[in-house]
Amino acid sequence: xxxxFGMALQDYQxxxxxxxxxxxxxxxxxxxxxxxxxxxxxxxxxKLEQRALELCRGEVLDIGAGAGSHSxxxxxxxxxxxxxxxxxxxxxxxSKRGVEETVHSALLxxxxxxxxxxxxxxxxxxxxxxxxxxxxxxxxxxxxxxPGGQIxxxxxxxxxxxxxxxxxxxWVPNTGAYYGEVEFTMAYKGQKSDSFFWLxxxxxxxxxxxxxxxxQCELVQEGKHYDYLARxxxx
Length: 235
Description:
methyltransferase activity; 7 helices; alpha/beta; SAM-dependent_MTases_sf; seven-stranded mixed beta sheet
């Protein structure tokens, strides 16, 4: 898969910023990912992200670290942080920005170490892709946790994106799949990624999935637009 994301991050870090990443999705929407936003400081982060960072403790695995903004903040607070990403360009960017420990790996391939906090921000749980994969990912998360460890993640319930009828019901296409499974492609400077699925999961569904693998789940904070921060830990 072309590392569109990593290419864009390295361009921005190297002073070659001229455009943003464009995304297309199965929801028939085009959008963009502004590169400067990925390099933001703590003060420019949403309240949910700020709250998650304040709850981090001990050794932290920043999953889907991107440009490393969360890792750098935690590192500055004196926490030991490992930034993990599947994008080689993202990991190179993290290193250049000063993240001390990085890992270039797919999440399910990463094993052998345990952490006090697994951090998954900017809808980091989306990496699961499809709801049917959630069980395996949650079990893997448990193998990465120290005793008393926690998982902090944010996501959104995208039910608001579907049409509502006069009675308040929502018309969700009957595709046989969970409505939060969204297929994306990314484009940048004339190059286009392969398509991939990204999961947006409502809190109730997340909580039920966590319970099924022996994880407790707490709704820490809700955002202004169907988004939320959750904390999971071993029962």
